[in-house]
Amino acid sequence: MNLPQQRWQICTAQPELAQEIADVTGLSPIMAQVLLNRGINTPEAAHIFLDPELEEFPSAIQAFPDLLKSVDRIEMAIKNGDRITICGDYDVDGMTSTALLIRTLRLLGARVEYEIPSRMTEGYGINPRIVQDCHERDVKLIITVDNGIAAYEAIALAESLSISVIVTDHHEVPEDLSKLPPATAILNPKYQVDPDSPYFTIAGVGVAYILALELSDRFGKRAELEQPLLELFTLGTIADLASLTGINRRLVKKGLRLLSQSKVIGIIALINESGISKDKQVGMKPEAIGFGLGPRINAIGRIGNPQTIIDLLTCDEMGEAIALAQECESTNKKRQELCKDIEQEAIAYMTKRKSEGFDIKQERVLVIVDREVQDTLYP
Question: Which end of the chain is more exposed for a tag (fewer CB within 10 A), N or C?
Fold first, then answer.
């Protein structure tokens, strides 16, 4: 058998330890060796991997120093009847985070709106234009989701206009901490959270979920919110390719089972429209989200209007949800056609270059850019 010239790293077999883990867990020795290859090297660790509920986690309040401060500020805004704006992002993590907080705050009686910057003209994250718009609408509190940790200028402007800002994000914190935004509170697993914490790998939707769950407890509404929040958390976490370790693994395992019996009208409509199969006993598989639901949501963020997804994931009427899910389906088909066209153009371009003597094997990485297409999509 001829294998490509690649550098292979083969894990050393540990038959005795593999057999010990197999005896304790009921796995085959081969599967036990697979766990060993992934660093799960004790029977105790194997038990926890197979049943994440066995692991004891610290409370979110212990992990996030600003969590109670955030809940206090939001509670005050709700009780005062203040306008609250959620500033989201146009990818699946940002849109599920936005929908998750909208559902929560609406149920708690908040006056809540949302803003998502234009992908084409504004780019990523909260910006001065959004802050100025909020000021003109007399917004008193902005909550960022999946963005904000690097938005010093916009958040400084908000604070100067007496608008409180709570940053919920999961992106890297500026190396120079003096460039941290002057927010009322910051919830970010990369900030003031131990890298060994089970919360360290959560995505933006995970941060929003933790905040929403704490709010629901404060208002005595956990029973009404827990399942839909977990469904949205699972959808956003898998689609954002967050590491399925720590709290993510425990919650996603539960969430996948819930998704197959979803109570979120928009998710039901999207599942039906996409034709994804589901087993109510076993639960939905991650692949169904990663290659089914996720791309349909992301397509809207890339070439459509993000409001479609926010409306889909927060609506309560099936007729509306079906229409919005159909829009997701058609937009995703358009995205697939665009990708196919771009791929064929790239292949044709490289075929022409090869005929002109270009040796593709001499290059480790190739990036093909069509300036005309780029200028059309991103003027």
Answer: N
Report the C-alpha gap between 257 and 231 in whole angstroms: 9
Looking at 166-264, list the stretches that DSSP marks H as alpha helix, in order from N- to C-terminal side.
Answer: 204-218, 222-239, 246-259
Mean pLDDT of the chain: 91
Enumerate the β-bridge partners of residue 113.
Answer: 85
Q: CA 100, 121, 95: angle at the middle one, nearest 5? A: 10
CB 84 within 8 A of CB 141: yes
Q: Cα separation of 44 and 73, whole Å?
A: 41
Residue of 304, 360, 370 lying closest to 332 (CA atoms) = 304
Nearest-angstrom CA–CA distance, 198 and 189: 10
What does the alpha-carbon distance between residue 56 and residue 37 come to, in Å, rounded to a whole number?
A: 24
Backbone angles phi, psi at 185, to 5 degrees: -155, 150
User: In what side-by-side order are the strands of the sheet with 139-145?
Assistant: 111-115, 83-87, 139-145, 164-168, 185-187
pLDDT 10s digits, 39-55: 999 999 999 999 988 88
Answer whether residue 167 shows pLDDT above 60: yes
* φ, ψ of residue 83 in degrees (nearest 5): -75, 135
Asked whether the beta carbons of 64 and 214 are under 8 A apart, the reply is no
Measured CA distances, 169 to 95, 144, 252 (Å): 13, 7, 19
DSSP states of 51-65: -GGGS----HHHH-T
Helix (H) or strand (E) holding 370: none
- Which residues, in sequence order, are bridge partners of residue 130? none
Q: What is the pLDDT of residues 323-369, one digit of tens each?
A: 999 999 999 999 999 999 989 998 898 888 888 888 877 777 888 88
Distance CA 149, CA 126 (A): 10
Residue 376: per-residue pLDDT = 47
**268 three-state secondary structure:** helix
Query: DSSP characters for 47-111?
Result: HHHH-GGGS----HHHH-TTHHHHHHHHHHHHHHT-EEEEE--SSHHHHHHHHHHHHHHHHTT-E
Are 295 and 338 a contacting pair, CB within 8 Å? no
Give the DSSP H/E element, type plus range, for residue 164: strand 164-168
Structure-block tokens of residue 265: 């009208």
